[in-house]
Known about the structure:
β7 and β8 form a beta hairpin. This protein is an alpha+beta fold.
Amino acid sequence: MANRWTNTLTDRDVTPEAAFLNRRQLMAGAAGLGLIGMASGAKAQDALEPNPWEDITQYNNYYEFGTGKEDPARYADALTTQPWSVKIDGMVDKPADYALEDILQAMTTEERIYRFRCVEGWSMVIPWNGFELADLLNMAGVQSGAKYVAFETALRPDEMPGVRYPVLDWPYVEGLRLDEAMHPLTIMATGIYGRDIPNQNGAPMRLVVPWKYGFKSIKSIVRITLTDEEPPTSWNKANPNEYGFYSNVNPEVSHPRWSQATERPIGGGVFASRVPTQMFNGYEKEVASLYEGMDLKANF
Ligand SMILES: Nc1nc2c(c(=O)[nH]1)N[C@H]1C(S)=C(S)[C@@H](COP(=O)(O)O)O[C@H]1N2
Ligand SMILES: [Mo]
């Protein structure tokens, strides 16, 4: 029956009501903050229903604040995030300590709703706010010989109770190949749900590489170094047989101690069933070409 509602139906009207309302709130929030534009990557993710704020900010891995999932939410408030600067050095034209506010001034912040898959076998959907890492690297001017990007997290023994324990070799470090770092899906996140990113999620600025296991997405970054050699990475140093440099989400390559074929969506409840893990975490179309011809089992 034709009525005034059916006449105005759009694809949005078929999304679940909660997601729809949520989305409208987000859009209003983004408009209020003056955030510009939606990237094509985000548009393609419209069907994803993000986890609630509580899941995203109370179930965390941030070992500098303890190894329990609730430790970061409990202790990370102690981290001083203002002022903040990021040293960008190595093979760049303009090496400097960049003040975070100067970086944000120069960058275009947008919303990206991404799947997030931890190597431990759980997953969430997170509505990040951030900017493309490529834009930041281009601002510093990447030199032609550069092949990799190394990242380092702040190390503040007075503010981080977890670094008293040698769980990892502090500071936490990570790395990407330059083409992975320059890929448009790779972002620096500074917000979640249109609000400042909480300390437990890596304030004031953390990496998000949605097709890789979560530990590649290094938090609270203080240094970015362009180099021509594959940089050391924290989990690889801790256990090279279990954690490789690439760490792409891959249901066909098992962790030595568990399968990666399925995952447990956080918020699904204790009895919720696991769901299949997707190749490159669902971003195969966008990123598979980066690894053409590579043996993904050998380069895990
Ligand atoms: N500096 C630092 N970055 C880190 C970690 C960490 O312990 N320290 N944990 C990683 C892991 S294992 C995961 S799954 C994600 C978790 O991000 P989230 O807490 O925002 O969900 O952060 C990653 N980045
Ligand atoms: Mo993780």
